[in-house]
Amino acid sequence: MIFGIVGAIAAFMAVFVASEANDLTREGEVKKAGLEIAKVSAFAVKVPAEVIGEEDAGIPQRPPASARGVHVEITVRNLEESPSFISRLMVTFQASGHPDVCSPAGGPLSVTAEYQVKIPWDQPLQKGSGYHKVPFTVTHELTHEIRPNMYEKFLISLGPEYEYEEMPWLGIFKIALERDSGEKVETNPIAAIEGDYTTRPFSESANDDKERRCQVRNSNEVLSMLKVPDLILSREFRDLKAELEAIRSSN
Questions:
Q1: 122-147 pLDDT, tens per residue?
Q2: How far apart are CA 7 and CA 23, in angstroms?
Q3: CA distance 127 to 202
Q4: CA-CA distances (angstroms) from residue 233 to 60, 181, 242?
Q5: E strands along 7-150, which residues?
Q6: In terms of C-beta density within 10 A (0-12 exposed, 13-18 middle, 19 or more buried), how is residue 55 classed?
Q7: What is the rounded distance in angstroms from the CA atom of residue 45 to the CA atom of residue 173?
Q8: DSSP structure string for 28-41
Q9: pTM higher than 0.85, yes or no?
Q10: Would you say 202 and 218 are in contact if contact means Cβ atoms under 8 Å apart?
């Protein structure tokens, strides 16, 4: 298991609010109370990072700018005639972790991304698995005002603290924004995978039956994630889904 090598992973999130606000006032428009989510998209990116650890430890290093993560863009609309004050961001994970290492290759890279909110390194794992016990929620305090009848775009960046050579981080999560009044607006579940992934954990030529069973287990775990209702797939997760379905149909 990859967690047998490292012991645990952590994931971080940074929150940015884009100054993209559009006037929504229309003559005769019917107003509803509260907020609504107008659009959600997710995609893998390279994020600011720093290299840590010792070179002589035998751990491969990457340039700081090569750390990977997932960006989620959420466009929120304030439907009220008065400002809405966002005081809290909550990310609830329904799945989080890495596939198993099926062959004696790959390993941790001493690269950590500069995110602002992290999942605790000791977040419990499922027994015998590289995935966390779920659900669990990470909370980040905010102070942001959405003006009346306006759109605002929130950019949330998340990903694992440590990278693994050709071992992607996968997650399913909901993102909620909470007003100072206690009202919440929440996305549908989002399935995302960090960038630069390969299908190695799922389809590389296996040396023996044990490795092949490991790959099949990894594939089944990912495909089972797709059974979550109303799932929003990131670009990379959509590509991985198609590749795994093609592998399954060819076997």
A1: 788 898 888 889 999 988 888 888 98
A2: 49
A3: 21
A4: 31, 31, 12
A5: 11-18, 35-46, 49-51, 68-78, 84-97, 108-109, 111-113, 117-118, 136-146
A6: exposed
A7: 18
A8: TPPP-SSEEEEEEE
A9: no
A10: yes
Question: Of the candidates 182, 162, 172, which has an alpha carbon nearest to the alpha carbon of residue 224?
Answer: 172
Look up residue 18 and give its two tokens: 């884009």
Burial track 90-123 (b if 16+ CB lie within 10 A, e otherwise):
bbbbbbbbbbbbbbeebbbbbbbbebebbbeeeb
> 126: which DSSP letter?
P
Tell me the per-residue pLDDT of 14-72, one tens digit each, with 9 for 90 and over: 444 443 433 333 333 333 448 899 999 998 877 665 555 444 445 445 555 555 678 88
| List of E strands, 136-244 | 136-146, 151-160, 163-164, 170-179, 184-186, 190-193, 232-233
